[in-house]
Amino acid sequence: MGPYEYVLVLASIVVGLAISDLLVSLKGLLRARARVTWDWAALAAAVAVLMVNIMIWWSLYAPSEKPTTIGAFVPVLVQLILLFLLTSAVLPDEVPAAGLSLRDYYAENRRFIWTLFALTLAWALGRSIVEAAIRDGRLAIGGRIPDLAVLAVMVSMIVVRARWWHGLVLALLILSGPVAWLSRSLG
């Protein structure tokens, strides 16, 4: 097994742990469903984050620049850490005996969740731009304008509280991001 295969194994473990954390949180919510006041925003964010986990894990399978040195691996590791933190933040870990409102949870944690979401995307985007610059010998971000626009929208989610905006952005992220990527990948 070469260095890149070790990177894939560690990446798979970290993504697997992140998804496991998300599923354990969901299981806790389902078990305590009588004490949970459900809300679409937290659940939609969880779906978006789950899809991002799958996208990042899959993208590591065939990156443009395969990390085979520790210097090339550290940026991948930072991306995986950000992804884990994002995934573990999107749903609550426990349901208190007094009950839990997912609407309140999302409202209280939205800044943290969307900061991590934006950092995860910014890091992945930055990694991709730097890898392309090293490979091609020039810095080109023109083709990254749509990604930069998505990043700007994610940053807006940190400061904008309007639920209609969160609903619109979550719908667009789920439909135009992961679902579009998945539909292209299935073809």
Protein architecture, described:
A two-stranded parallel sheet has the order 1-2. The protein is mainly alpha-helical. Helices cover 77% and strands 2% of the residues. It starts with a helix and ends with a helix. Helix 1 (3-31) runs parallel beside helix 3 (70-89). It contains 7 helices and 2 strands. The chain is globular, with a radius of gyration of 17 Å.
Pick out the low-confidence regions. none
Major beta sheet, strand line-up: 1-2
Helix segment tally: 7
N/C terminus separation:
30 Å
The whole-number mean of residue pLDDT values reads 88
| Structural class based on helices, strands and sheet pairing | mainly alpha
What percent of residues adopt helix (DSSP H or I)? Answer: over 70%
Number of strands: 2
Q: Using the CA coordinates, give the radius of gyration.
A: 17 Å
Strand content bin? under 5%
Gross geometry: globular
What is the H/E order?
HEHHEHHHH
For the biggest sheet, the summary is: 2 strands, parallel
Question: What is the strand and helix layout of this fold?
Answer:
Blueprint: H1 3-31, E1 36-37, H2 40-61, H3 70-89, E2 100-101, H4 102-136, H5 145-159, H6 163-176, H7 178-186
Parallel strand pairs: 1-2
Helix pairs in contact: 1-2, 1-3, 2-4, 2-6, 2-7, 3-4, 4-5, 5-6, 6-7
Question: TL;DR?
Answer:
The chain is an all-alpha fold and about 190 residues long.
List keywords for this structure.
single chain, 187 residues, mainly alpha, two-stranded parallel ribbon, globular
